[in-house]
What we know:
By secondary structure, this protein is an alpha+beta fold. The protein has one domain: Winged helix-like DNA-binding domain superfamily/Winged helix DNA-binding domain (Arc Repressor Mutant, subunit A, Orthogonal Bundle). 68% of the residues lie in helices and 13% in strands. It has a three-stranded antiparallel β-sheet with strand order 1-3-2. The longest helix is centred in the last third of the chain and has 33 residues. The radius of gyration is 19 Å and the shape is elongated. The mean pLDDT is 90.
Amino acid sequence: MLERVTDLFTVVAEPTRRRILAELRGSDSSVGELVERLALPQPTVSKHLKVLRDNGFVRSRTDAQRRIYRLDGRAFAELDTWLSPYRELWEHNLDRLEELLDEEDS
Length: 106
């Protein structure tokens, strides 16, 4: 587990960070590329990337003078683990609803 001071849900609740994550879902990107695609100031993008990196949502590598960011699965795995019992509950409820609807059709 990552050591962090911020709750993962607080991290992804911020709309700009979700936009950055959505962009990185498509391809690895430099800060400059993200600034251009998101039409945000560079300091804003850098600030949010730091929060995402510190909490395990992204990682970076150096390419000459640029930092290239990509998604990192660690925090997503933690979110998925937390959500799993709720997903199972809804799947069970939806399966039961399907059974009831099938019974009505019979």
